[in-house]
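Help needed: design a sequence for this.
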């Protein structure tokens, strides 16, 4: 595995808390607030009217674009700009260097793309299991709250991915796939994961703890496990290659492929509903699992040899 050192000289726990707090503040408060003002020119009504409709956007599909702009700004500012300024200004690190590697070959990029797409089938088994998970009686109230949040998240997903034009689809792809791939990987894999390695001294612990935090950040407990598995996959891709770009690209392929399939489903081009929580047939899941495992093995061996030759 590549030796990914922490980003700070301060105690790892302090660094972890600071990173999470600053990213969360930017994502939840600063980004959406600035995004609101950027969204005003794209709404025909008054500013106060937009403020009122934002309180219940699901009832007002006409503000989909302004809300997408706010969401995009939340990610751009909270997970990309603020963390980058923190890295450059406080930690004196340039995150661009985390993406420079000899492994950015066309073959490896193609392997990552196919690897992520094949993971959809085996992960669908965990999606179905997690979607139907029943909390024990002593967690009944939490389970009901989590189910309400999950239902709301599903409605927002449909709200954000109902595209009336190709232009809306491309903008949705930017907000849902490109920006989260860059921002979430920068924060969770580029910043948190190395700090967790510094705290634990174990790459596996750092990858899985980071994946758990990554999944919890989305606040969707009936999709917690499959999202955690995705986070762990991105984490191993980063550690094995030492190249954050490949983790970002994998994240983009996962989100972008989902958005594309939803768009094609809406257009009637395909009959596969990506929003369904039903698992793939076991035979399909088994075949894709074998392909996925083979590609993952090749990816690791390729970078093991690359790391040995460069050492």
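Sure. Designed sequence:
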């Amino acid at each position: 595995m590549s030796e990914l050192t922490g980003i700070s000289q301060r105690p790892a726990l302090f660094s972890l808390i600071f990173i999470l707090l600053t990213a969360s503040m930017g994502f939840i408060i600063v980004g959406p607030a600035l995004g609101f003002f950027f969204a005003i020119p794209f709404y025909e009504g008054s500013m106060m009217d937009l403020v009122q409709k934002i309180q219940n956007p699901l009832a007002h599909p006409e503000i989909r674009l302004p809300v997408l702009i706010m969401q995009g700004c939340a990610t751009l500012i909270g997970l990309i700009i603020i963390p980058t300024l923190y890295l450059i200004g406080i930690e004196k690190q340039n995150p661009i260097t985390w993406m420079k590697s000899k492994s950015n070959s066309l073959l490896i990029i193609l392997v990552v793309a196919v690897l992520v797409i094949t993971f959809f089938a085996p992960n669908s088994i965990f999606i179905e299991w997690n979607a139907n998970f029943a909390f024990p009686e002593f967690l009944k109230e939490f389970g009901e709250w989590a189910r309400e949040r999950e239902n709301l998240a599903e409605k927002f997903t449909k709200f954000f991915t109902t595209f009336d034009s190709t232009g809306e689809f491309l903008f949705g792809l930017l907000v849902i796939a490109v920006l989260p791939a860059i921002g979430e990987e920068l924060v969770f894999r580029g910043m948190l994961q190395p700090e967790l390695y510094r705290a634990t001294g174990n790459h596996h612990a750092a990858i899985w703890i980071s994946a758990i935090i990554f999944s919890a950040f989305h606040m969707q407990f009936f999709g917690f496990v499959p999202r955690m598995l995705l986070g762990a996959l991105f984490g191993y891709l980063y550690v094995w290659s030492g190249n954050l770009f490949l983790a970002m690209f994998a994240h983009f392929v996962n989100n972008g492929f989902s958005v594309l399939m939803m768009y094609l489903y809406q257009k009637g081009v395909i009959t596969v509903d990506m929003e369904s929580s039903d698992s793939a047939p076991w035979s399909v899941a088994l075949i894709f699992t074998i392909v996925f495992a083979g590609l993952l093995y090749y990816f690791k061996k390729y970078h093991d040899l690359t790391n040995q030759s460069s050492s």
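Residues 166-200 form the longest helix (35 residues).
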